[in-house]
Design goal:
Layout (H helix, E strand, L loop, with lengths): L1 E6 L6 H4 L2 H8 L4 E6 L12 E2 L9 E2 L1 H14 L4 E11 L2 H7 L4 E6 L4 E2 L1 H7 L2 E4 L9 H12 L9 H5 L18 E2 L2 E2 L9 H19 L6 H10 L1 H6 L6
Parallel strand pairs: 1-2, 1-6, 4-7, 5-6, 5-8
Antiparallel strand pairs: 3-4, 9-10
Bound molecules: 6-chloroguanine (6GU).
Length: 247
């Protein structure tokens, strides 16, 4: 997979992309990530990327020409691509969307700032707008890093044990179960017996049950019909947490 990121703050990406899974995936050739400084696509002496909005209102707007020049240079050089603009007005990022995007061969991520970007760039070049939640950040860089991390860890080979990405929280609309490691007793609290009995069927059942209980308690809106009916038949205590069936 190829990911191109267009930003006025290229240095911001150095830390997060040179650690952990994203770094390993790049070294293994699973993903190629390139960061492009939008200022390199300006043509004036001051390398201006923004201007005041028509109609007033304060703030600054990214001018369309440097963006178009940058995007064209990335598009013409490669095959099929999808251009994503990171903005709080975008479609909320979910595991489902992340899964879809992880199948794309080439993503171009556009990081905005200030008031945003000239609307014509959105119309002409952007295929998808994505938000990482209902709060406002000062730019699209952190959201782009979040998106890249969420995608890269799904790419085959990125995580040593691919199983572990497949069984994540949200991969099947359930929160994760509790996990324990040594010591057996910590500050007077023992590890649940079921986990040390070595009965793997029982352990799997306990984990699923814990995942459903935790989801019912914290995020009942995530429970799908299947988990709900399982809950009704096998986990009566979860009914007390979610009196009305969501969805
Ligand atoms: Cl994608 N951008 C900005 N600036 N703020 C956000 C966001 C994106 N998602 C949530 N807040």
């Amino acid at each position: 997979m190829q990911i191109d990121i267009l930003t006025i703050f290229p240095e911001m990406f150095e830390g997060p992309f040179n650690q952990s899974i994203v770094e390993k995936a790049q070294k293994a050739g699973i993903v190629r990530i390139r960061i492009h400084d939008l200022r390199n696509f300006t043509e004036d002496r001051h390398r201006t990327v923004d201007d005041t909005p028509y109609g007033g209102g304060g703030g600054m707007v990214f001018r369309p020409e440097p963006l178009a020049r940058a995007l064209q240079s990335l598009i013409s050089a490669e095959g099929p691509h999808r251009t994503i603009f990171l903005t709080p007005e975008g479609r909320p990022l979910t595991q489902r969307l992340t899964n879809h995007l992880s199948l794309e061969p080439h993503l171009i991520l556009l990081c905005g700032h200030y008031r945003g970007i000239d609307e014509r760039i959105r119309t002409l070049y952007v295929n998808e707008e994505v938000s990482i939640g209902d709060y406002v950040l000062s730019g699209g860089e952190l959201p782009a890093m979040v998106l890249v991390d969420a995608i890269v860890r799904l790419l085959p080979g990125a995580i040593g044990n691919f199983e572990s990405a497949q069984s994540d929280s949200f991969q099947e609309d359930l929160l994760d179960c509790p996990w324990y490691t040594r010591p057996r007793v910590f500050e007077g609290m023992p590890v649940p017996d079921v986990l040390v009995n070595g009965n793997h069927r029982e352990i799997a059942r306990w984990r699923r049950r814990q995942a459903i209980l935790r989801t019912a308690e914290r995020r009942p809106e995530l429970l799908d019909r299947e988990a709900l009916s399982e809950m009704e038949t096998e986990i009566p205590e979860a009914r007390a947490i979610t009196p009305e069936a969501p969805r």
